[in-house]
Design brief:
Length: 333
Amino acid sequence: MDIAFKLFIIILVSYGFSRAAYRLHLSKVIGMIVAGLFLTFPLAYEHLILGHEAMVEGLATVGLITLMFLAGFEVSGNLLFKEEKDAIIVTLFTLTTSLLAGTIVFTLLGFDLPAAIIMGICFGVTAEGTKARVLLQLKKLKTKLGALLMGTGIINDIIGVFLLLLVSYIFTRGFQVSELFTLFAVLLAFFAGMMAHYSLDRFSAKLKRIEKLLLFSLVPFFFVNMGIKFDFHSLRLDWWIFLIVLVVATLSQIIGVFLTKPITKLRPKQLFLVGWGMNSRGAVELAIAYIALSIGLLPPTLYSALVLTALVSTIFFQIIIFRMVKKNPGIMD
């Protein structure tokens, strides 16, 4: 089979899963994660990827940088400044509780300190894009809690990328040129996307088409390579690690939000909703985990558990927020 045709099939499969996720009211990122895992099943892997792993790895780096640019391109400062105070408070509390929980729990489980810290960083990062699509669908984007959730996503993304860079600098004894390029390219791409958001007409039809072209032509290879690095065998043997990751990641965000009650004055039901909103995970968390794995800071078992957690917790977030808003339409005001 011609290599160009194989690449086209990979893109087509990724697009199909993304559309299926969209029709199920899930994030397109969820669809791409599932597509990446599907394409590494033995039959698909043998016919589409086997023998071309190096090329897929190269395309994955380009896809990762593109994904981070698109993540930055989605950032809207207007939504951050609308609930700036509460967004900063919630972000600081949830990041702190997540970082402490991840570091303490996984150090006690016997993992080394860099891996435990990376877990804490990933627990604290949320997905602005995923939340935006759900809130738009519910027509709650411009509500108080809608702006709060979006603001926390923006701050989380920025701090998460900087923390990855800091941890990598402290704990990696010697960077290779490729590792340095990837780290700085990811950082620059994210901020280039943010600048593009302000300097261009974010919602023009032409830019929407370019955004979709980038999303479905380059980004899928990042998720395919993510699937290649996914360790089914280790998770099957150590399935309890996934359960611990899921529980600690979820509870640390919810607890962090509830700790803000005396400061934010949000009602308990609103705090619960925001807590689950902070459990929406996506591109930035996966990018951090992927890079940490690539430079040797994160073992395959924890990386694989983070990928599954991103899937499960994001789906839970969308189910819970839909039900809560349906029962109490004014909860986000």
